[in-house]
Amino acid sequence: xxxxxxxxxxxxxxxxxxxxxxPDAVRARVAAAMxxxxxxxxxxxxxxxxxxxxxxxxxLESHARRAGAVVVDEGTPRGLNGAVxxxxxxxxxxxxxxxxxxxxxxxxxxxxxxxDLLQRAPTHGALVVPSKEGTGTNALLRTPPTAFPPCxxxxxxxxxxxxxxxxxxxxxxxxxxxxxxxxxxPEDLSAFVGTPSxxxxxxxxxxxxxxxxxxxxxx
Length: 219
Known about the structure:
This protein has helices spanning 24-44, 58-66, 79-94, 111-119, 156-166, 177-180, 186-193, 200-206, 210-218, and strands spanning 2-8, 50-55, 70-73, 98-102, 125-130, 137-143, 171-173. By secondary structure, the protein is of the alpha/beta class. The chain has a single domain (2-207), classed as Spore Coat Polysaccharide Biosynthesis Protein SpsA, Chain A (Alpha-Beta Complex), CATH 3.90.550.10. The chain has a 7-stranded mixed β-sheet, with helices on both faces.
């Protein structure tokens, strides 16, 4: 079984680096829109049999259930690596042969990108998709799911590669432009809104009026 993991912070805690630009309620709506874009891509992928969402946010839990995902209630937020570990345990119980972790802030990802990664999946080993800076990790595929623990945060790309090597497994770095564009900062939003896209995130941003004009002025 091929399982996708989608960890997501509570909306009140998400995308705090956008706080100088967006009021809290708006920032939460933008974070929810990004989550929906990623969720829709995962549930539409032909190669994914089950999507597991790990979150403590009731709004995101409702979205996930409506999309047919399995929801793991994180309870008290335990950080990204803790959430991925919790989701991995759930995936293993479901019979996962491998797991694909995708972060919730890559709204341009498409089902075809997910299918491409799964088609590249090694029998034993890992794939990592870097962040736009080339140092972080925006997606991680592990076969088997417990091959090594997640190492998200900071310069996680090199830590994931090193963890795979310590486990005696190959690890390939896969460049995927849409997966590499994560939205963390006002500058990221400037780049994103510069090109219209058929995403929930772009639609949400176009509803913002004055904040949207400030974002566009940065592009």
